[in-house]
Amino acid sequence: MQDNKPKGKGFRSFSKNFWTVIIMEFFERGSYYGVMSVLSVYLVMSTDNGGLGFSKESVGVIKSTITPLLYLLPILSGAIADRFGYRRLLMFAFGIMSLGYFLTSTVTSYQLVFLSLLLMAIGAGFFKPLISGTIARETDEHNSTLGFGIFYWSINLGAFIFPLILVPYLKGISWPYIFIMASIGTGWLLILNIFVYKEPAKPASTKNILDVLKGVVLVLKDYRFVVMIVIYSMFWILYFQMFDTVLWYLTEHVDMTPVNKVVNGFLRLFTENPNWKFEAEHVTVMNAGTIIALQLIVSSIVKNTKALPTMIVGIAMGTTGMAILAISMHAWVFMAGIIIFSIGEMTAHPKFISYVGLIAPPDKKALYLGYSFLYGVIGSGVGGILGATLYVKFVDGMNRPDILWITFSMIGVATILGLLLYNRYLAPRK
Q1: Which of left, alpha, beta for 369 (phi over 0: left; psi -120 to 50: alpha)?
Q2: Please, what are the domains in the chain?
Q3: What confidence tier does 162 reach under pLDDT thresholds 50, 70, 90?
């Protein structure tokens, strides 16, 4: 059953089902990024300070396991949803996700925390394509662009508001409250799914699991595509440091007092004696806030530029942002590095999606775009363990964080060189 689509223009052209899944996306992503904005800090923080006291290497293993699932599981969940229905799969996703968050708030042993976060990741991975799939079915050629624009804004809005407002308040009470918040934030969506969400109309043709596996084989046989994904995934090794090594570095080595003074000076215009502090969760806030503020501007600047050169410029900016962190531990240097990295990310990634569409065979564009997410599987799979290992070696062992950031910057440089060589020798010629 499907809502009748309104015949208005702009925001009025969207169905009730569209706005329902936008709300779902906002709360799910807000809960996820709220947790991820501090998870790596919480897991390694001493038990005396309210953390769990795990080693950074063991946390790297957790992150290199759960994050790739978020990129890998959608290839299966899309096919399962087409077969068994979106509402049923959303029930499963919200249920297991909420349970995973709640269990994480109650357990303290490494094995049980790992298993709890694994449940969360499975739920989030199954959820991921269901919202975009619903939006695709609830929009048409007239409002699809606006619809997906609202969708992406809802993601960043959740990633901005939850870490900015809820996480600092809750961790001031007790760190486990952050996971309880995420459990409630995703669990209440079961009610929305039962009483408000409507099953969207199925497409004319659907894929079963065997079709999905055949698609994987077909794509992986195209060595040009695989090489390009591997090269681009190196840049995402840098991106995933924003949830691990960057947070440890900020917490352990950067004095954010200069930033705190400026922000509190501004807040003093509205309240007496403000005591705001820049902490780990605000790295995610900066990244999401930069995208919210500048994505439309950046997109308009690069809308007519060629995909590969724009990707390279964006990756170069991201690499520069990472290299800036090596200059000094000063608060404003740290801020500049994160902001420049975020601008590079928002410049490169939309053009990557465009580039996949350009190099894919004409009759397989949808297939290739569907598997382009493999960059996240590789980037997060390598990034978690590599980041933790290098941090322990260079920062904890040698007190040389500059070497850490230069090392990651070199990975960014290797990404740029790889794309240039790919374009020269492997890219399909149009």
Answers
A1: alpha
A2: 1-207 (1.20.1250.20), 218-430 (1.20.1250.20)
A3: very high
